[in-house]
Specification:
The protein has 229 residues and is of the alpha/beta class. It folds into two domains: 4-15 and 99-227, Rossmann fold (3-Layer(aba) Sandwich), CATH 3.40.50; 17-95, DNA polymerase, domain 1 (Orthogonal Bundle), CATH 1.10.150.240. Helices cover 48% and strands 12% of the residues. It has nine helices and six strands; from the N terminus they run βαααααβαβαβαββα. It has helices spanning 17-30, 37-55, 59-73, 80-95, 104-112, 125-135, 152-161, 176-185, 220-224, and strands spanning 4-7, 116-122, 143-147, 169-173, 189-192, 212-213. The chain has a six-stranded parallel β-sheet with strand order 3-2-1-4-5-6, sandwiched between helices. α2 packs across α3.
């Protein structure tokens, strides 16, 4: 029986990647004079991946990577005005309202009485804390864990800290790479809830079996009945 359920935050409980996609569209428009859209996408993704070890995940690292890419594709000739515009893009993203996905509150309320709920989200500490607070969901969780990376070792540390048997733990998230594969490796269960946009860095081949997939969190309470003895 599952007694503890972990939930991802970005693109599982609230919209996130669509905001990045919209900003990347604006980035391509701003730098369209320097390179074609495909080149800009490829160069930005390469810079983002290289910068993860310096900045981690989140909006601030994304903005710094956009600036670095702009400098790169213009051979250092990007204007101060364009850099200021990229910084403004980031501030707009940080100030954007937290918009919950459909069915989130109903699903959490249906599960809270029978399961301990954990929020396990990845990214910049300040930004994630702000989104959790503005989401209005914080009180529904027994604990909030904000981590810099989601791998099997991270999940094991979290489960050990909260005294959770991995065999009785279920992780729910939109990313196969971050919310499914490492949880299965750690001995837990996973449910994949795909979001309509996926960052290329988070793309991964799903395992052949060992996890479940649902289209919306509204389906989660019914799915949990399958785990009951």
């Amino acid at each position: 029986m599952i007694d503890t359920i972990g939930f991802d935050g970005d693109d599982t409980l609230w919209h996130n990647e669509s905001l990045f996609s919209m900003t990347q569209d604006r980035f391509r428009t701003l730098l369209g004079h320097a390179a074609d859209p495909e080149t800009l996408n490829r160069r930005l993704l390469d810079v983002e991946r290289a910068n993860l070890r310096f900045y981690g995940y989140g909006i601030k690292g994304f903005v710094l990577s956009m600036i670095e890419t702009a400098i790169d594709v213009t051979d250092g000739r990007v204007s101060g005005h364009d850099i200021a515009t990229l910084v403004a893009f980031g501030k707009t993203m940080l100030a954007h309202p937290v918009e919950l996905l459909d069915g989130v509150e109903a699903a959490l309320d249906a599960l809270a009485g029978r399961h301990r709920l954990l929020l396990i989200t990845k990214g910049d500490l300040f930004d994630q804390e702000s989104k959790v607070a503005r989401s209005g969901l914080a009180e529904r969780f027994a604990a909030v864990e904000i981590v810099s990376e989601k791998d099997a070792a991270t999940y094991r540390r979290i489960l050990d800290r909260h005294g959770v048997d991995p065999r009785r733990f279920l992780m729910v998230g939109n990313s196969v790479r971050s919310d499914v594969l490492p949880v299965l490796e750690a001995g837990g269960h996973a449910v994949h809830v795909p979001y309509h946009v996926t960052w290329a860095h988070e793309e991964a081949k799903p395992p052949a079996d060992g996890y479940r997939r649902i289209d919306t969190l509204r389906a989660l309470p019914a799915l949990l009945e399958e785990f009951r003895p």
